[in-house]
């Protein structure tokens, strides 16, 4: 197996970028999800997991490393993340008051409707949601959903049949012909060597409605979660039985990862 693509997402729930190489530490890929919008009204982190409020974030793109992040707006304009007026600009475009935060508050939460409810009632519907504390499996103050790295295999992506970008992984692993889909379920508790990085699987990656939403020019696609609902519901410790694709990883020993690096499972 090898690293087919390596990605980072400088601002949570915005589109990100491919990188040829990245340093990885216990908090994850350098520059990944280091920024996020916080809803002034609720104090919660803005995420497309709640599509009625925040799905438009997936029409914005964030690129660049720490201290040099730029946000490309839906109309093509680019603004530095550290621009003095960025909060006012984004609040006006999104229709809700937000602040661009550089450090996650203790106990920070997001709102997450069940993907089944979003598929049944539509992205505009007011459906019930749960509030979840993010980054429970990662030290530091980044805005990852749970753990430092999120990995998915080409075998799983091929089985589902939609674009990898919809699942927002850090590492896409190319697997050999015949490799089983959803094998990541079995990687929990096992160690992986990814380039110079030693990691360990912690949880299968639960899926919300985000993969089904429009991502930039990609239209909505319910196929992104339906095969998971029928074929890969997994008992995720602490979260319940959920549709899953991919695996979360904790970092045991950091270092660089490059596209093309070997991936070995121990």
Automatic annotation (TrEMBL):
Pfam families: MOSC (PF03473), MOSC_N (PF03476)
Domain MOSC: 125-266
Annotated SUPFAM superfamilies: PK beta-barrel domain-like (SSF50800)
Lineage: Bacteria, Bacillati, Actinomycetota, Actinomycetes, Pseudonocardiales
Stated name of the protein: MOSC domain-containing protein
Recorded GO MF terms: catalytic activity; molybdenum ion binding; pyridoxal phosphate binding
Superkingdom per UniProt: Bacteria
InterPro entries cross-referenced by the UniProt entry: MoCF_Sase_C (IPR005302), MOCOS_middle (IPR005303), Pyrv_Knase-like_insert_dom_sf (IPR011037)
């Amino acid at each position: 197996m090898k690293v087919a693509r390596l990605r980072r997402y400088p601002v949570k729930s915005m589109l990100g970028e491919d990188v040829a190489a990245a340093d990885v530490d216990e908090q994850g890929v350098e520059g990944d999800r280091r920024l996020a919008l916080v809803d002034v009204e609720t104090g919660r982190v803005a995420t497309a997991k709640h599509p009625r409020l925040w799905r438009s974030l997936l029409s914005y793109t964030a690129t660049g490393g720490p201290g040099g992040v730029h946000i490309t707006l839906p109309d093509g304009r680019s603004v530095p993340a550290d621009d003095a007026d960025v909060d006012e600009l984004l609040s006006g475009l999104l229709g809700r008051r937000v602040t661009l935060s550089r450090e996650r508050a203790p106990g920070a939460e997001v709102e997450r409707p069940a993907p089944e409810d979003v598929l049944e009632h539509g992205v505009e519907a007011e459906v019930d949601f749960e509030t979840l504390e993010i980054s429970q499996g990662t030290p530091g103050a980044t805005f990852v959903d749970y753990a430092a790295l999120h990995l998915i295999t080409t075998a799983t992506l091929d089985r589902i049949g939609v674009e990898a970008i919809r699942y927002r992984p850090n590492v896409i692993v190319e697997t050999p012909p015949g490799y089983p889909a959803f094998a990541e379920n079995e990687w929990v508790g096992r160690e992986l060597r990814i380039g110079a990085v030693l990691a360990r699987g912690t949880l299968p990656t639960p899926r919300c409605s985000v993969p089904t939403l429009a991502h930039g020019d990609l239209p909505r696609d319910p196929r992104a979660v339906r095969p998971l609902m029928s074929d890969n519901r997994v008992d995720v410790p602490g979260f319940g039985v959920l549709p899953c694709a991919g695996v979360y990883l904790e970092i045991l020993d950091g270092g660089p990862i490059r596209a093309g690096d070997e991936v070995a499972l121990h």
